[in-house]
Specification:
This protein is about 80% helix and about 0% strand. The chain is mainly alpha-helical and about 220 residues long.
């Protein structure tokens, strides 16, 4: 298998990360995912131009953190990444890799992509939407289910486009030991982009609503 990201000659920090990933896979993935989810929320808020909601009576430290959008929601996103997303992904991807370990035929690669999209993606999507519902204030099971139903197909369609492409690239060019940082990088970029777009659309909707109210 040809490799785009060979481990030989890799940066020492990457080698240390891979060593920790091999020794403590779940812990390393949890810390990584929690950190990336935190950064996604912070970057998404800043890049979208979302106004900071900071009390004038807050301390200088709180105002500084709030201005940078380092807030409660960002912390909740980090907790989601650490306690929900990473363990679930670790478990599901582990099953997938074990099921197709040592299989390099075209049929096996296609089957791996199909299994990822039809079995793993729906579980991860439902988990993500349920967690976002709770983070955004859902207090009942009905509200969580409603959120999942409303957003499931929108999210899964994106996953069905991105996942096969990234999986194909990984199968052809990325050694298995680098799959975790490779997929983390893709998820981080896409997650930050969609986070930013959602916030921009929300701001645009609020601006339009305000303009309509002013015309009345």
């Amino acid at each position: 298998m040809s490799t785009l990201l060979p481990t030989k000659g890799a940066h020492p920090l990457l080698l240390k990360y891979l060593a920790q990933l091999a020794l403590h896979p779940l812990r390393t993935k949890a810390i990584t995912t929690g950190t990336l989810c935190f950064l996604q929320e912070v970057l998404g808020s800043n890049l979208s131009g979302t106004p900071a909601n900071v009390s004038k009576d807050a301390s200088p430290l709180v105002r500084a953190l709030g201005s940078a959008h380092i807030d409660t929601k960002a912390v909740k996103m980090a907790i989601y990444g650490f306690l929900v997303s990473a363990p679930l992904s670790h478990f599901l991807i582990g099953i997938l890799q074990k099921a197709f370990a040592g299989q390099t035929s075209t049929r096996a690669k296609i089957a791996q992509i199909l299994a990822s999209n039809l079995l793993i993606a729906p579980i991860q999507t439902s988990s993500y939407l349920a967690s976002m519902a709770v983070i955004n204030g859902a207090t009942s099971l009905e509200e969580v289910i409603k959120t999942i139903k409303a957003g499931f197909f929108q999210v899964i369609r994106i996953s069905w486009v991105v996942s096969p492409l990234s999986m194909t690239i990984a199968q052809k060019f990325v050694p298995v030991e680098l799959w975790v940082p490779f997929f983390n990088a893709i998820q981080f970029v896409l997650g930050t982009y969609f986070n930013m777009r959602v916030k921009q659309l929300r701001l645009a909707a609020l601006k339009k609503q305000k303009q309509e109210e002013e015309r009345k």
